Amino acid sequence: MLIDNILISKQSLDSDDHYDVIMSNIDSLNGLFEHYVEYDEVSAEALYSYFVDYYLAQVNNGGFSQFVYNTGWDAFMVKHVREGLKAMNATEHSALFEQSADLIDQFSDEQLEQFLEGEYFGENEQRDILNAFDDQFYALNDSEDLIEINSRWLKQHPKLQVVDEDQILTIVEQVAAKIPNLEQRKQQAAENSPRYFKIIQALCLQAGQELDRITIGDPSHEYNGQEIVAWHFLTDAGHFYMLDLGDQALMFNENDQQIIALDVSHIADES
Fold first, then answer.
1. CA torsion sign, 41 to 54 to 223 to 112?
2. Which H or E element spans position 87?
3. Alpha-carbon gap, residue 29 to 41, rounded angstroms
């Protein structure tokens, strides 16, 4: 364990916006991960908030099936969403998550693998089965607001470490300096980065911008009459998204204006 606290900014704690403290925790964790700190080296409680918010964003964007598809039903993420909802006393959301998770038990291992590796859009029986409780989720979130619950839980947590936002990067760097095999991790990270990450880095370099973070992959984006994954990201110049067309990648701003078209035929499909 390199850091067992939940690192947030004083500014987010003082804010009237419930989401600010959640976002501060996300930013701190993403900063740690970008500095090669691994999941099992940070606070489990910080990860509860982090993954519960990711779960909420995924279901709100495309239903429970999108959460399953985009995470690959990863055991670590599922465990932290499950435990996070319980820790926050989001009782009804916890029960609904279990109901949704039980739907996966209807699938054989082969059917689940087919869903995770297949085309998400079009006719997709597994996707439609997994979205069976989506309407209940959306209705429930009106009465048991996960953002408010997550925020209140964070603000009252005994592991909270509150610092000025200008100090967070310094603390992140101090934590990263404790990694015994830091150089090895840097090399592995460069080799294992997914294609979309390498493309976004290349686009940022071409645009003369500094990548802050990748926020979400939206599989329901429409381009030229077809649905395609849009990878949203933040830079020092604002919010953008990327479309990978195979040999070419396009970068758009938040107003859907194309900024860059870049040849990415040299970037491998697999990490």
1. positive
2. helix 75-87
3. 11
| Distance between CA atoms of residues 204 and 73, nearest Å | 30
Look up the pTM and report it: 0.78
Check if the beta carbon of residue 87 is closer than 8 Å to that of residue 43: no
| Residue 31 near residue 163 (C-beta atoms within 8 A) | no
Which of 58, 43, 56, 50 lies closest to 25, judged by CA? 50
In this structure, what token pair is assigned to residue 108? Answer: 């054989």
> How much of the chain is helix, strand and coil, in % rounded to 5?
55, 20, 25
- Return the SS3 of 39: helix
Query: Is residue 270 very low, low, confident or very high in pLDDT (cuts 50, 70, 90)?
Result: low
* Residues 271/195, Cβ–Cβ less than 8 Å: yes
Residue range 19-34: mean pLDDT, rounded: 96
Strand partners, 211: 235
Q: Tell me the helices (H) and strands (E) count for the chain, helix number first.
A: 13, 7
Helix (H) or strand (E) holding 65: helix 64-71
User: How high is the pLDDT of residue 271?
Assistant: 44
